[in-house]
Amino acid sequence: MSRSITIAVDGYSSCGKSTMAKFLAKELDYTYVDTGAMYRAVALYALRNGYAKGNEVDSAGLENALDKIDVAFGGDGHVLLNGEDVESEIRSMRVSECVYKVSSIAAVRAKLVEMQRKIGKNGGVVMDGRDIGTVVFPDAELKIFVTASAETRAQRRFLELRAKGDATSYEEVLDNIRKRDYADENRAVSPLRKAPDAVVLDNGNLTIDGQNKELLRLCREKGVEVNGLRG
Ligand code: DC
């Protein structure tokens, strides 16, 4: 029997964490959990219900409304906000502009971290986020910390948004990424940190193929069966 481990994929925004985590989940037949999508769903709720406008967030109001917010994942992995599939809407710039403020609210983090621990309690998960290897699952067997320059990330995100018909400029995307990096590294609760035992992967330097091979090698090293071969 192969081991069903917990894999934490942490790093800055738009650095390819979800591509890596999805690849691993598919290869290993594990559950993929996009924790950023959960924070984004709460941010969307805040925008829709008058607790956020632009990047101004009414933290106390949102905290009081937390009981009315249900975040879950559908069978297709899409995030559900009070039962509604909001997978596409949570990727908009409107949400990106306020999500870093929403994710700095301690009560929001407490609620979502509790849910993440429940989802991952039996192992066999690949969870991507900022604090998975440090806070959510400090005992995760495999921790990966992904990096790439802000410019590389902005260029990728800009192309993604443009493909969806979003007219946000490269400069605006870069500015938003820098703001989110700053917020991620400097928030009082669970700031983005590399766990001491995390493996660093610089996504700017690797081809997709090279990256995938390295990810599978790291799994084999942990005794996980990959393609029927135990490494
Ligand atoms: O990964 P992403 O860009 O979709 O994340 C959206 C926001 O949520 C981002 O501002 C960082 C925050 N986040 C967090 O604070 N903790 C996590 N585990 C995941 C995301």
TrEMBL record:
- A Gene Ontology cellular-component term: cytosol
Q: Which UniProt keywords apply?
A: ATP-binding, Cytoplasm, Kinase, Nucleotide-binding, Transferase
Biological process, per Gene Ontology: nucleobase-containing small molecule interconversion; pyrimidine nucleotide metabolic process
Any GO molecular function: ATP binding
Q: Which SUPFAM superfamilies match?
A: P-loop containing nucleoside triphosphate hydrolases
Reaction(s) catalysed by this chain, per the record, are: dCMP + ATP = dCDP + ADP; CMP + ATP = CDP + ADP
Subcellular location per the Swiss-Prot or TrEMBL entry: Cytoplasm
Q: InterPro entries from the xrefs?
A: Cytidylate_kin (IPR003136), Cytidylate_kinase_dom (IPR011994), P-loop_NTPase (IPR027417)
Task: Name the EC number(s).
Answer: 2.7.4.25
Where along this sequence does the record place binding of ATP?
Answer: 11-19
Q: Which Gene3D superfamilies match?
A: P-loop containing nucleotide triphosphate hydrolases
| Residue ranges annotated for the Cytidylate kinase domain, each copy included | 7-215
Q: Where's it mainly located?
A: cytoplasm
Q: Which family does it belong to?
A: Belongs to the cytidylate kinase family. Type 1 subfamily.
Looking up NCBIfam families in the UniProt record yields: cmk
Q: Matching HAMAP family, A to Z?
A: Cytidyl_kinase_type1
Q: What is this protein called?
A: Cytidylate kinase
